[in-house]
């Protein structure tokens, strides 16, 4: 069943974002797993995932960012309450200027999650209504979850 | 004659008694009506997600205790369960049953703290004493099985750390009986109280659409008509072996949340009772086969469990070494908190505490 969902997602994504949009797709622990480039990730695509009759991904579990040293990825786990199906969507972006569109207008819950990813990884969510730090202080330097973040206590003034 | 009113900014917290932790909400009020509310969080941020990147998989367990410190058993399971799935570790039946008993008792304990403190916040002082009296029964049981009252670190990857001591299961069965009677007492003490109903009915209504849009989960979502419980609908552990109902209400107000949580306590006791019966047929093993140094294969996985506050998930990325590459903790309190600006707008300031209390937020989990 998951394989059918995956095929469906691939078809629908390609019809909106073009045939080359998908970098990688597979079943990961029986859950569809799709990697896109940040240039093909648009609010139209997000809206389609949410509103399409066969997909109906109305529940966004979480948004998170990952620093892979060479590039960065933003992770979305989506769940359809009606259809009982899942997808893990990953958006690949550059490490120097990590930038991904904001989906806070599509799923309300993305708001704080995106702020958290911005705060801890420095990912810019374009179109976010209020992209400010959420967990750390406003004048904090750097983004701790980046792999090159300096964790020397003395320079952080913690020792 | 018209009365001139002025907009005023009011800071609630970070040390307000009703926030049960450091949480600030800046509100703009016009007269007594809230115009705008801005939650400010992060006072308790410890950087758990960063810290665990430098720990072995086993060492992460105590850090999960400190997320939602009222629900540490379930936090432990959320972590070890994700690692087990990624490694393909089998957990023996007895360990699974003990886990279920501990998680469900912990849910009752967590809801009891909510019940007591929520009523305290809106002005009823004595229920707090009842709730903590009953919670103590559960904490005593936990002390006997793992030596801790709050930060258990009881789950290990592949099982549980210690077997239940002799007579413990009988004590649990006895405790279930006592708790069930005491929870029935709560209805006569509080539920029928007219003043309490006036304070909660129709207050802070969250619609089903809002609940889904804002990613709400757990009792908060179920009180708004979202019929979803991870224990039933996205099975983990051995929840498919138990009979239990998932209470759902349509109203979405604080009263509905109260009803859902009270019923959830009864259902949890039902599960504990069945687990105590079924465990007698399970083998003696409490620890599955795991290597001495835990190195899950490279890969990633998102798994979630039903915590007392909602969907508690772990997104784990392993690069094949002995330390996790990246861990994202999906904390239900963090997500549930986010809806506050939307539901507070237009409410009277007197309802602020009732609405915030109704969400049942634990700050250790909001800030992680």
Automatic annotation (TrEMBL), chain A:
One of its GO terms (molecular function) is NADH dehydrogenase (ubiquinone) activity. InterPro entries: NADH_DH_suC (IPR010218), NADH_quin_OxRdtase_su_C/D-like (IPR037232), NADH_UbQ_OxRdtase_30kDa_su (IPR001268). It comes from the Bacteria. Keywords: Transport. Transmembrane segments: none annotated. Gene3D superfamilies: NADH:ubiquinone oxidoreductase, 30kDa subunit. The keyword Secreted does not apply. The keyword Transport applies. Residues 43-154 form the NADH:ubiquinone oxidoreductase 30kDa subunit domain. Belongs to the complex I 30 kDa subunit family. This is NAD(P)H dehydrogenase subunit J. It comes from Desulfuribacillus stibiiarsenatis. The lineage of its organism: Bacteria, Bacillati, Bacillota, Desulfuribacillia, Desulfuribacillales.
TrEMBL record, chain B:
The lineage of its organism: Bacteria, Bacillati, Bacillota, Desulfuribacillia, Desulfuribacillales. One of its GO terms (cellular component) is plasma membrane. NDH-1 is composed of 14 different subunits. Subunits NuoB, C, D, E, F, and G constitute the peripheral sector of the complex. InterPro entries: NADH_Q_OxRdtase_suD (IPR001135), NDH1_su_D/H (IPR022885), NiFe-Hase_large (IPR029014). Keywords: Cell membrane, Membrane, NAD, Quinone, Translocase, Transport. It is a peripheral membrane protein. This is NADH-quinone oxidoreductase subunit D. Its EC number is 7.1.1.-. It comes from Desulfuribacillus stibiiarsenatis. Belongs to the complex I 49 kDa subunit family. It is found in: Cell membrane. It holds the Pfam family Complex1_49kDa. Residues 121-367 form the NADH-quinone oxidoreductase subunit D domain. NDH-1 shuttles electrons from NADH, via FMN and iron-sulfur (Fe-S) centers, to quinones in the respiratory chain. The immediate electron acceptor for the enzyme in this species is believed to be a menaquinone. Couples the redox reaction to proton translocation (for every two electrons transferred, four hydrogen ions are translocated across the cytoplasmic membrane), and thus conserves the redox energy in a proton gradient. Coiled coil: none annotated. It catalyses: a quinone + NADH + 5 H(+)(in) = a quinol + NAD(+) + 4 H(+)(out). Gene3D superfamilies: Cytochrome-c3 Hydrogenase, chain B. It comes from the Bacteria.
């Amino acid at each position: 069943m998951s394989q059918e969902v995956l095929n469906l997602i691939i078809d629908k994504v390609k019809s909106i974002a073009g045939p080359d949009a998908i970098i990688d797709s597979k079943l990961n622990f029986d859950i569809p797993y799709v990697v896109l480039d940040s240039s093909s990730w648009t609010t139209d695509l997000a809206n389609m995932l949410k509103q399409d009759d066969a997909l109906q991904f109305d529940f966004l579990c979480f948004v998170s960012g990952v620093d892979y040293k060479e590039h960065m990825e933003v992770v979305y786990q989506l769940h359809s309450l009606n259809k009982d199906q899942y997808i893990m969507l990953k958006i690949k972006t550059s490490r120097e200027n990590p930038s991904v569109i904001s989906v806070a207008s599509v799923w309300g819950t993305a708001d704080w999650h995106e702020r958290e990813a911005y705060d801890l990884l420095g990912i810019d969510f374009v179109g976010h209504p209020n992209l400010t730090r959420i967990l750390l202080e406003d004048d904090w330097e750097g983004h701790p979850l980046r792999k090159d973040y300096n964790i020397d206590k003395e320079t952080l003034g913690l020792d | 004659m018209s009365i001139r009113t002025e907009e005023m900014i009011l800071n609630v917290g970070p040390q307000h008694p009703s926030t049960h932790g450091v949480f600030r909400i800046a509100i703009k009020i016009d007269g007594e009506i809230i115009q705008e509310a801005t939650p400010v969080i992060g006072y308790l941020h410890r950087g758990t997600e960063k810290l665990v990147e430098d720990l072995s998989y086993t060492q992460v367990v105590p850090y999960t205790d400190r997320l939602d410190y009222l629900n540490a058993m379930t936090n432990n399971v959320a972590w070890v369960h994700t690692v087990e799935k990624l490694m393909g570790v089998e957990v023996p039946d007895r360990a699974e049953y003990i886990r279920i008993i501990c998680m469900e008792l912990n849910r009752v304990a967590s809801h009891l703290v909510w019940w007591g403190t929520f009523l305290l916040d809106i002005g009823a002082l004595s229920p707090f004493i009842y709730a903590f009296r009953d919670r103590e029964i559960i904490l005593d049981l936990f002390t006997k099985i793992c030596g801790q009252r709050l930060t258990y670190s009881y789950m290990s990857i592949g099982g549980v750390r210690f077997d239940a001591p002799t007579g413990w299961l009988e004590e649990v069965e006895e405790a279930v009986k006592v708790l069930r009677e005491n929870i029935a007492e709560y209805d006569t003490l509080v539920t029928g109280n007219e003043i309490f109903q006036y304070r909660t009915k129709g207050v802070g209504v969250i619609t089903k659409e809002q609940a889904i849009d804002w990613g709400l989960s757990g009792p908060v979502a179920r009180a708004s008509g979202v019929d979803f419980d991870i224990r039933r609908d996205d099975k983990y552990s051995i929840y498919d072996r138990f009979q239990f109902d998932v209470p759902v209400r349509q109203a979405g107000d604080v009263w509905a949340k109260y009803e859902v949580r009270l019923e959830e306590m009864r259902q949890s006791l039902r599960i504990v009772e069945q687990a105590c019966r079924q465990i007698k047929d399970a083998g003696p093993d409490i620890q599955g086969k795991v290597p001495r140094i835990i190195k899950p294969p490279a890969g990633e996985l998102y798994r979630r469990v039903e915590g007392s506050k909602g969907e508690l998930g772990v997104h784990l990325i392993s690069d094949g070494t002995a330390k996790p590459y990246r861990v994202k903790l999906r904390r239900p309190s963090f997500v549930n908190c986010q809806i506050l600006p939307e539901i507070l707008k237009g409410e009277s300031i007197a309802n602020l505490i009732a609405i915030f209390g109704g969400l049942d937020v634990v700050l250790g989990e909001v800030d992680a």
